[in-house]
Amino acid sequence: MLFKKPLIALASVTAAFLPSVMGAAWPLTGDVGCHDPSIIQEGSRWYVFCTGDGIQVLTSNDGLAWTRAPQIFLSAPSWWSKSVPNHSGLDVWAPDVQLYNNKVYLYYAISTFGSQVSAIGLATASSIGAGSWKDEGVILTSSGSNDYNAIDPNLIIDASGNPYLAFGSFWSGIKITALDKSTMKPTGQIYSIAARPNNGGAIEGPSIIYHSGYYYLFASIDKCCDGVDSTYKIAYARSKSITGPYEDVAGDAALQGGVTVLDSGNARWKGPGGQDVYNNVIARHAYDADNNGAPTLLISDLNWSNGWPTY
């Protein structure tokens, strides 16, 4: 996320969650400290990849009881500091994990707080369980010469089996571009699909799925990463075409700020966002007001009503 602050210490929560924001969350236990979760199931085992040192990983054999697994990167690839000179250490943002053509693709972002000098990288593996991740290098960069910020990547496979990468945070908003099936790197035009020109540009973290003839864009809007003072919300829009135009429930254009809020938090769970939608499951983080504002993993079933998502 663009205006990312150093994360509040990730919490190990052993008590089952209370019901979540707009519907009952899964009753998670164990180590559920996470920011910007990306969720996937491999066989019977669940994994969640999170922002943090070297990309943090949580795992569960039932999706409910979670433990922390080894991080992906133990040392920084040399291209990180070349692409983002002010970056140091192993801080990695907003990973996105997907299975495509019998291979696991893990996109992630390297940046620094408040900067547009950013890069999206890619690691691959034959399977998550096997590990042995291979660094595929830099995929996309941004600087002051671009109108976008190259963070918050999301791999989408369209209805015809073609890969696309959505990304973006603030500036001119959310973008999407086709990927080469061989290299899984961008090829061709970059399309603009959502922006908030009248709200300080506060939209980021795309997660796009295809459902019943539409592409649904889920995004995070407003202020992230400020603990219980965060005003983050999860919002959505949809389009018949993966490259847009996207519209909200009222028919307003997503490029003009037209998104419909799905989740704005509650008294306990502040600033929900960093969402990832996977097989009618939605994972996101929220700041736990009962635990010093710790960023915490929430998972719910995603339901549908009259062609629109709901918890």
Automatic annotation (TrEMBL):
GO biological process, one term: arabinan catabolic process
InterPro entries linked: GH43_arabinanases, Glyco_hydro_43, Glyco_hydro_43_endo_a_Ara-ase, Glyco_hydro_beta-prop_sf
Keywords: Glycosidase, Hydrolase, Signal
EC main group: hydrolase
Pathway the protein contributes to: Glycan metabolism; L-arabinan degradation
Swiss-Prot/TrEMBL catalytic activity: Endohydrolysis of (1->5)-alpha-arabinofuranosidic linkages in (1->5)-arabinans
Domain of life where this protein originates: Eukaryota
EC number: 3.2.1.99
Signal sequence annotation: 1-23
Keyword Signal: yes
Keyword Signal among record annotations: yes
Annotated catalytic residues: 36, 204
CDD domains reported in the protein's UniProt record: GH43_BsArb43A-like
GO MF term (any one): arabinan endo-1,5-alpha-L-arabinosidase activity
Cited Gene3D superfamilies: Glycosyl hydrolase domain, family 43
Site (Important for catalytic activity, responsible for pKa modulation of the active site Glu and correct orientation of both the proton donor and substrate): 152
Family in the record: Belongs to the glycosyl hydrolase 43 family.
Name this protein carries in UniProt: arabinan endo-1,5-alpha-L-arabinosidase
Upper taxonomic lineage: Eukaryota, Fungi, Fungi incertae sedis, Mucoromycota, Mucoromycotina
